[in-house]
Amino acid sequence: MKFTRRNFIKDAALLSLLSGPLGNLTAAAPLTKKAIHQAVALHWLDGKQPNIPLGTTFGVPWSPGEVKPHDQFVLRDATDQKVPLQAWPLAFWPDGSIKWSAFASGRAAQLSSDNLRLEKAAALDKADISVVESTDDIMVDNGLLRIQFAKSGQRLLLNVWQDGRLLAKDVLLKVILQDAPDTETAATWQTTEWISEIKNCRIENSGNERVLVCAEGYHSDAKEQHKFPFVLRFYVYRDVPTLKVLYTFLYDADEQTDFIKGIGLSVAVPLGDTELYNRYVRFVGEEDDVFTEAVQGLTGLRRDPGAAVRSQQIQGKRIVLQEINERVRKGLPYIPAFGDYRLSQLHDSAFGISKRTATGHSWLQAKSGRRSNGLAYLGKPDGGVAVGIRNFWQSYPAQLDISQAATDEGRLTAWLWAPQAPAMDLRFYHDGMGQDTYEKQWEGLEITYEDYEAGYATAHGVGRTSELYLSFFNETPSTAQLTAHAHAYQSPALLTVAPDYLFAKKVFGANWGLPDRSTEKRRALEDRLDALFTFYNQEVDRRSWYGFWNYGDVMHAYDTDRQVWRYDVGGFAWDNSELSTDLWLWYYYLRTGRSDVFRMGEAMCRHTGEVDVYHLGKFAPLGSRHNVMHWGCSAKQLRISTAINRRFYYYLTADERTGDLLHEQVEAVRRLEDVVALRKRLETPLLAQPGKVLVSFGTDWGAIAAAWFTAWERTLDPSIKARLQESMYSIANQPQGFFTGRSLFSIDSGRFEREQSREIRVSHLNAVFGLPEIVEEISMVLPDKKFESAWLAYCRLYNASDEERRIALGTTEGKFNLRSSHARLTALAASKLRDKTLARRAWTEFSEDRGAMGDAAVVNPTSGNVEWPGISTNWAAQWGLTAIQCLHLVGDDQND
Known about the structure:
Blueprint: H1 5-16, H2 21-27, H3 29-32, E1 40-44, E2 56-61, E3 72-76, E4 82-92, E5 98-105, E6 116-121, E7 130-133, E8 137-141, E9 146-150, E10 157-162, E11 165-178, E12 191-206, E13 210-220, E14 226-237, E15 242-250, E16 259-270, E17 280-284, E18 290-294, H4 307-315, H5 326-331, E19 340-347, E20 350-356, E21 364-369, E22 375-380, E23 383-389, E24 398-403, E25 409-417, H6 438-448, E26 463-473, H7 479-490, E27 495-496, H8 499-505, H9 520-542, E28 558-559, E29 564-565, H10 581-592, H11 595-610, E30 623-624, E31 636-637, H12 638-641, H13 644-653, H14 656-664, E32 692-696, H15 699-715, H16 718-732, E33 742-746, H17 771-781, H18 785-797, H19 802-809, H20 823-833, H21 836-846, H22 850-853, E34 858-859, E35 866-867, H23 873-890
Antiparallel strand pairs: 1-6, 1-27, 2-5, 3-4, 3-6, 4-5, 7-8, 8-9, 9-10, 10-11, 11-12, 11-16, 12-13, 13-14, 14-15, 15-26, 16-25, 17-18, 17-22, 19-20, 19-24, 20-21, 22-23, 23-26, 24-25, 28-29, 30-31, 32-33, 34-35
């Protein structure tokens, strides 16, 4: 059948007839009639107008037919002041209209924060940011800065001018590599320096408000060897004197011999025309505390240069030589000039600032504190450069260096891995303990929940994306300006829509709703949802779940005897998205709109999408199951790398790196040809069939479907849609539908082979890694009656009685695990089928896990730790998702 707008509306309307009373709220309205476009209310995520303009990019969803690809928009405030927006599509509805728009603005912060409205515009200011591209470079002029990007060589950014003055030059990346760990040898370590080498630089996005320049390459040593691929994105906003830098570092070394001693981004600052006492150094420490010095200090001397001179130096103003007291002026050659400074955050709770005159001389301890906000500045009275690292202390060990400030050219280096810290050691934490057969490995799994296999516990191919900022000033910034910049770096301003708008558009499915405390039972569940998030959000700090490779993740399970999370016990340590922790946070954000929830979800998305997933090598692009080390488990699976965990952040922020991760997953299923998930448990090894793999209808297909659905809505590529629909059809065509469990899968066509046996193969994990959530989204946009019938049968029968299962499936196999988690499947079936008995059954099933969850967070009287008795992240994530969906789908049917 030809896919037309009319058929799309007709099928969506038919689908809505299957929904229950609350289901009608969720399914049909946005999909069955063209909405009349009205202004969309926007607000700043953190609830306040940004006082530092860094520029912002954000996403907004639409109903079908509401917005066309070439529509233009402005942002207007309560005073009717407006600024133009740069817009581009992120996703499409089947009719070609826009499902998600991305918007960028460098000037949104100029508007009042009251009553911000997104409106269509007949025409926009056509004065785009100036971009001139040649064979060798890309020149960008945003109205305040002229920036020259290189297309080859080591220097990514060649020069930055402001008002005709050169403020910065020669931005490059550095990796320091050490041939042994710091802790295991007394011999002299050999270190080598690896510098960025560009292999491709391009304009990725360009318009009236933002230009994005993307450079890709690797690091090279003196022997021209290559390691450590990188992707570096520079965001240039109109009339904004700050560049956002998104730096993706990929590890492709041998963890047994290559120990990273430093990862940094460096920028040169010309200083040669300025006296030493007119060169200014600043570090933002804790909260609003600023370390304020000059390379050659004139305060605290035995002889007073004069109050005016001292005040000028503290403020970073230009000091004229003749204004200095004659005796002090005569003694200037004997006042030390400190050319090197560093701020080292080697732990999440401790930093120190030190300085020295030059190489070969001792360092002086200058200041210490707890948690630095991670900004360093170097400049002159007529301008300078600040560099900042987002999540500076959270991602320790980090470091900010100012070097050679007493020479003609100083240098600022933002170290994402601090050279002052011990070298990075990514070796696995044990030697395998004799687990050289699958049988032994299974025994190990039984005792520590760790799925070990030699050769699989490797970091080769994992990545880390960091966010940095380069700000340029035409005079020495005040301490208030610097602290404001530092705070802005840590919580970049983001425009967003309200939860009720997201709910109305149903772009993330129709199985979640807004908070509702209208009854005592609803209020109790809402309160518990809040308490559960608060507990985990605070546990991050209480348990110091921080560090370069760890920040963004949480632990899997708690050890009540030791009163610690099981950081050292196999599969009970780092969570790695197990049982949809990411989804729990994102659905909780969708319904609450809380900034603290968004920030936790953002950190988790950055971590789980980069560190827990391979981007290079033999396991790419699969993810690793939970382990003591994020990459340690031999289960390399689609359920961890799944696109459904990234969709939320991508569409809400239009983040290009997250877009890369989504693209990685489109053909991820091909990796299953040589990384067989069930290789340790299959009684008969699979015979290799080119282009075919064994795929489960749950964790595997759910991830495949999420990747293909996302790719299709981003591109409307008909071949991807055809593969997705063929996979849906061939699941529904199985003898037992979803209960058939798995089959051989043709990657190119998307078709599952039809099984001949009516055997039931059900895993309790099938529906707890995003399957219900992505099926809901797909079914709303690509309705298929036979597929939905098979899906609703699975939802209805998973927790059904033996008799119901016997009648429907011809077997009484069963009761399956995670019954309370599957209560949301029962609720979905109840809503779609308008079945009150099923609705009440859903609540009975949901209540079964209360003992496992414990009562609430309490303070342990012995240790003083805040603990939640019986807590595990599996239960927390699944309880949260199930509560959200049951409240919405069958909330009026709670049992007495």
